[in-house]
Amino acid sequence: MEQKTTLNAETRDQKGTASARVLREQGLIPAIIYGHKKDPVAITLNAHDFSEAIHHGGRLMELKIGKKNESIIIKDLQYDHLGKSIIHADLMRVSITDVVTVTIPIEIKGTAKGAAEGGVTVANTSALEVECRVTEIPEKITINIKDLEVGSHIFAKDIQLPEGAKLKSDPETLIVSCTTVEEAKTEEQVAQAEPLSPEVIIKGKKIEEGEEAQAEAKPEAKEKSKEKSKEKE
Amino acid sequence: MAMMPKRVKYRKSQRGKMKGNASRGNFVTFGDFGLQALEMSWVTAKNIEAGRVAATHHLHREGRVFVRIFPYKPVSKKPLETRMGKGKGEPEIWVARVRPGQICFEVGGVSEEMAKQALSRVAHKMPIRCRFIKRRHAI
């Protein structure tokens, strides 16, 4: 169940890359709040407090902007190129009665039965889209894979979701599979199968049947014109 | 056998310049753990293959290794003891252009400790500084 975190925020007037960069240097994060058919508001958040709140699994937050209080959920986060620090946040206004679509991470528990028989467990999907009330956003979806045998799969439709949550992703989404790994090819086999240099794509169209006749006719026409020019001389 | 494209439009390419950071392929997508490049460089097909072999050997067919970079760029070289001129040399190696932030390798289906060990072996085969990272939780 969600715990509400309270954060302080300030509105900002200056927009654009340069001013956002200055804010980041000061330990702030530029963010925007939108939703509920109100005008979007550009704000700044304390980078440390915000990342701490996210780190502790907070999704529903209470923002104090001056004298106003707004309930928000995190809609999107932008990270820097190394994925270390948050550079921008999209926040959406919500009320307690709202039903929202959120992405919930999947946690896999246990060791598959097939792993002992030489199978490899691979998690194909790491998160699922779920529709639920704002106050009932689950922290994670736990899947137990103890009974997973070699060659068997777990799909999104097979998962038991927490109470009040409704699956929004495709029910046929593959979550976990246990498969056997093919034996690695020997160097000789690989060398035989692969060419030494790649094939070069040649420019130009393929000549079709109709065009072939035209292509044949063209050289004749050229020869005739040459003969004519000779006669003139 | 080293990786290279199956079909190309042009056999040879100009050397080009590399600028900036990786804006795509810079977070773990397929596996649970990844090896992220911290420097800019060409990574040859030989480097990539060596890394892949090192990881798969260490994992003993337990987990799964994903290679996120592909050497699509041909680098030509003139033969030894050849005078300058007479045109561009023949393609010698294939390289992937790697910029800071690019995830080069990913590992899935194993414990964090195991993945760390496997990816540290891969990092030793890379011509650049790399770091170990985990998959980011969905928001």
Keywords:
heterodimer, A: 233 residues, alpha+beta, Ribosomal Protein L25, Chain P, RNA Polymerase Alpha Subunit, Chain A, domain 2, six-stranded mixed beta barrel, four-stranded mixed β-sheet, 4 helices, B: 139 residues, Aldehyde Oxidoreductase, domain 3, four-stranded antiparallel β-sheet, three-stranded antiparallel β-sheet, 8 strands
Description:
The complex is a heterodimer of chains A (about 230) and B (about 140). In chain A, a hairpin with a 2-residue loop joins β2 (about 30-35) and β3 (about 40-45). Chain A has helices spanning about 15-25, 45-55, 185-195, 210-230; strands at about 5-10, 30-35, 40-45, 60-65, 70-80, 85-95, 100-110, 120-125, 125-135, 140-145, 155, 165, 175-180, 200. A 6-stranded mixed beta barrel of chain A has the order 1-3-2-6-5-4. In chain A, strands 10-7-9-12 form a 4-stranded mixed sheet, with no helix packed on it. Residues about 205-215 of chain A have low confidence and may be disordered. Chain A has 2 domains: about 1-95, Ribosomal Protein L25, Chain P; about 100-190, Ribosomal protein L25, C-terminal domain (RNA Polymerase Alpha Subunit, Chain A, domain 2). Helix content of chain A is about 20%, strand content about 40%. Chain A is of the alpha+beta class and about 230 residues long. The termini of chain A are far apart. The longest helix of chain A has 24 residues, at about 210-230. With about 140 residues, chain B is of the alpha+beta class. Chain B has a domain at about 40-80 and about 90-135: Alpha-Beta Complex (Aldehyde Oxidoreductase, domain 3), CATH 3.90.1170. In chain B, the strands form 2 sheets. Chain B has a 4-stranded antiparallel sheet, with helices on one face. In chain B, α1 (about 45-60) runs antiparallel to α2 (about 110-125). The radius of gyration of chain B is 17 Å and the shape is elongated. The interface of A and B includes residues 104, 118, 121 and 201 of A. β14 (about 200) of chain A pairs parallel with β1 of chain B, so a sheet runs across the interface.
